[in-house]
Amino acid sequence: MVSHSELRKLFYSADAVCFDVDSTVIREEGIDELAKICGVEDTVSEMTRRAMGGAVPFKAALTERLALIQPSREQVQRLIAEHPPHLTPGIR
After folding, report:
1. Catalytic residue among 15, 22, 32, 42
2. Cβ contacts of residue 32 below 8 Å, gap of 6+?
3. Which of 4, 39, 48, 87 has a CB 3.0–4.6 Å from the CB of 91, allowing a cystine?
4. pLDDT per residue over 30-79, tens digit each?
5. Is 20 a catalytic residue?
6. How many Å apart are CA 37 and CA 79, to the nearest integer?
């Protein structure tokens, strides 16, 4: 664990910050939607379920799922065009 001041310093010095907003800020689990388009929905959904249950660390689960999906830029663009994300009720 790092202190609040250390975390703040790290945050402000970062070139980029990434947040996982799937199934929180947005209703969809984006990686599962991408897996549908790529034809590996069932396997990836099970991996997501295990990761969300804490059985697999987030980084490992993400790495494993992306290795299985191997999405192309076109598939990602298709996902965004055909299935735009929806905000969770109460999020502005």
Report:
1. 22
2. 41, 44, 45, 48
3. 87
4. 899 999 999 999 999 888 888 888 889 888 998 999 999 999 999 999 99
5. yes
6. 7
42 catalytically annotated:
no
Residue 44 tokens read as 């990836």
Question: The whole model's pTM is what?
Answer: 0.70
Q: 15, 20, 32, 42: which one is catalytic?
A: 20
* CA distance linking residue 24 with residue 1, whole number of Å: 24
Q: Which helix (H) or strand (E) element contains residue 36?
A: helix 30-38
Phi, psi for residue 40 in degrees, rounded to 5: -130, 35
Residue 18, C-beta contacts closer than 8 angstroms, at least 6 positions apart: none
